[in-house]
Amino acid sequence: MSGAPSGTGAFSGTPILTVRNLRCTIAGQQVVEDVSFDVPATGITAVLGRNGVGKTSTLRGILGLISRRGEVTLAGDRIDGLPTHRIVRRGVGYVPEDREVFSKLTVAENLALAERQRNPRREFVAELFPDLVARRDQQAGTLSGGQQQMVSVARALLNDNRLLLVDEPTKGLAPKIVTEVADALQEASKIVPILLVEQNLEVVRRLADDAIVIAGGRVAHVGKARDILDDEDLTRRLLGVHVEHAA
Amino acid sequence: MSTLILTLITGVGLGALYFLVASGLSLIYGLMHVLNFAHGAFLTLSAFMGWMVAQALGTDSWGSFLLSVLVGAGVGAVFATLTELVLIRPLYERHIEQVLVTVGLSFAAVALFEGIWGTDPIHIGGPPWLKQTTDVLGARIPNTYWVLMIAAVLVLAALVLFLQKTRYGMIIRAGVENRSMVTALGIDVRRSFTLVFAIGGAAAGIGGVLAMHYSTFVSAHLGQTLLIFAFIVTVVGGLGSLTGAAVASVLVAVLQQFANFYLGGTGDFIVVILLALVLLVRPTGLLGRKA
C-alpha cells in the first residue's frame, strides 16, 4: 500500500481502485485536501468520518464530477484524466447521496437510462427489488424515499461494473427500508466490490469488511471495519461518536 | 363578436409562431443552461434560404412552399449544429462565455445577411390561398394563421413524441432535470447538446419561413424581432419547459393581440408588464421547476 496513509491493517491483495494524493475543489474551495487509499477487489470498503470531512467529495472526485487533481487508477488503468461518462463506462457504478432519481421519468425509464450493456441484469435487479417491477410505470418523483433509493441502487446494479461507489444509501430511510437496502448491497457485494460512504455505523458493522477513516481532509486510519468500530477511542476521536457494543 | 373571434384566433396564430421559435430556446436552456441569442440568426438565414428556394421554383405553388419550409428546417438545423459544435462546445460549462458568443454571432449574422441580401425588406410571394381569408362566425381570418397553427401543432407533436418515445428524448428529459447524474450513468450528455441545438434550429427554421409569409417580407432583422418575444415566452412559460413554452406562447400572443386592439396598440407594453409580473411573483415561470 505504498503512498497510502500510515493506518493499521493495510489491505492485502491487488486493489481494484487506488487513489493517490486526491485533491478536490468545489467553486475554488478545497473540499478534499490530500487523500490516498486503496480499495480491495472484493467485499465492501466503508469510508467513514465526521460530517463535512470530504467523504462525498472523495467519491465525486474519483468519478470526475467535481474538479480534482491526483492519481486514480481502476484495475491498473489511470482514470483521473477521463470525463465522468468514460469512467462510468469503464465499469464504475454510482449511487449518489440523496438518490438523484429523475423525478419526471418513470421507474422503467430511470432504469433503462442506466443500461449500458447488451444484456443488462434486469432479472437480478427484479429479484432484489420486486417492488420496482410493480411500480415500473410510476413517476420516480412520486415514490417514497426508500423506493427512490431502490431505483438509485438498481441503476448501478444493472451493468457488470468493476466497482460501485455508494454514497449514504440509508440516509433518511425508515429502519425497515434500511434493512432492505443493506440486504441488497450485501447481495450486490458478492458480485462487485463496493466503496461505501455510510454514517449508520450499524450498517457499516454489518456490511463492511474494511474501512477508511477520513479526518481533516486526509485519510487518518485504514483497517478492518470491525476493528475500527470496536475501538472506542478511535471512533470517539475520528468519528465523533460513541459506539454501543452488544453484550 | 366577430372582432373578438378575429382577435382571439389571430392571437393563437401568433402564439403558434412564437412557439416555433421559443420551443428550441426552451429546450436548449433547459438542457444546457445557455440563453441562445443566436436563435434569431437561425431563423433569419432559414427564411432567406426558403425564400431563395421558393423564388427558384415559383412562389405560387404549394410544392415550392412546402419545400421552402423543409429547406428552412434543414438550414436551421445545420446552422444550429455548427454553432453548437464550433462555438458552444469549446466553452463547455462556461455559461457566461457561451451566452456572449451567441450574442456576438447574432450581431455578426445580421451584418452578414445585410451584406448579402441588403438592408431593405424583400417582399415575398406565396400560394394565393395564403393571402386569402377564411370566414369563422363572421370573422375573416387570414389563412396564414391557420398554417402557423398547423405547423406549431405538428412541431409540438413531433417534439413530444421524440422526447417521450426515443432514448435520446429520454436523455434530454433526464438531462433537463439533472445533467450531472446523466453523465454519472455513463452517458455523454454533450451529444444530446448538439441534437437539442439541431432540433431547436429546425423548429426556428420552420418558424423563419412561416414568419416570412406572416410578415409578407424577409429581412436581415426578421429573427431579432421575433427573438425578443420568444425570450419573453420562454421566461413566462418557465425556462426549460416545453409545455410551459406552448402555454405561454398562446397566452402572451393572445394578450398582445387583445391589448393591441382594445387598448390602443399597447400589446408590446402589456407583454413586458406580464413578463415583469411573472418574474416578480413566480420567477420560475408558469411551469418551470424550482432551482
Secondary structure layout plus pairing:
The complex is a heterodimer of chains A (247) and B (291).
Chain A lengths: L14 E12 L2 E12 L3 E5 L6 H9 L3 E8 L2 E2 L5 H6 L2 E4 L11 H8 L7 H7 L1 H5 L10 H13 L5 E5 L7 H14 L5 E4 L3 H7 L2 E6 L2 E7 H6 L1 H8 L8
Parallel strand pairs in A: 3-8, 3-9, 6-7, 7-8
Antiparallel strand pairs in A: 1-2, 1-4, 4-5, 9-10
Helix pairs in contact in A: 3-6, 6-7
Chain B lengths: L1 H31 L6 H19 L4 H27 L6 H23 L4 E2 L4 H4 L1 E4 L2 E4 H23 L1 H11 L1 H5 L5 H27 L1 E2 L3 H16 L4 H21 L4 H15 L10
Antiparallel strand pairs in B: 1-4, 2-3
Helix pairs in contact in B: 1-6, 1-7, 1-9, 1-10, 1-11, 2-3, 2-4, 2-9, 2-10, 3-9, 6-7, 6-9, 7-9, 10-11, 10-12, 11-12
Overall description:
- The complex is a heterodimer of chains A (247) and B (291).
- With 247 residues, chain A is α/β, with parallel strands linked by helices.
- Chain A has a single domain (15-239), classed as Rossmann fold (3-Layer(aba) Sandwich).
- Helix content of chain A is 34%, strand content 26%.
- Chain A has 10 helices and 10 strands.
- Chain A has a 6-stranded mixed sheet with strand order 6-7-8-3-9-10, sandwiched between helices.
- In chain A, β7, α7 (175-188) and β8 form a beta-alpha-beta unit.
- In chain A, α3 (107-114) runs parallel beside α6 (145-157) and α6 packs parallel to α7.
- Chain A is globular and about 45 Å long.
- The model of chain A is unreliable at 1-6 (pLDDT under 50).
- By secondary structure, chain B is mainly α.
- Chain B has one domain (2-281): ABC transporter involved in vitamin B12 uptake, BtuC, CATH 1.10.3470.
- In chain B, 76% of the residues lie in helices and 4% in strands.
- Chain B has helices at residues 2-32, 39-57, 62-88, 95-117, 128-131, 143-165, 167-177, 179-183, 189-215, 222-237, 242-262, 267-281; strands at 122-123, 133-136, 139-142, 217-218.
- In chain B, the strands form 2 sheets. Chain B has a two-stranded antiparallel ribbon with strand order 1-4. Chain B has a two-stranded antiparallel ribbon with strand order 2-3.
- In chain B, β2 and β3 form a beta hairpin.
- In chain B, α2 (39-57) crosses α10 and α11 crosses α12.
- The longest helix of chain B is centred in the first third of the chain and has 31 residues, at 2-32.
- The radius of gyration of chain B is 19 Å and the shape is globular.
- The mean pLDDT of chain B is 93.
- The A-B interface holds A 63, 65, 83-85, 88-89, 94, 96, 100, 102-105, 109, 112-114, 116, 155, 159 and B 167, 170-171, 173-174, 177-178, 180-189.
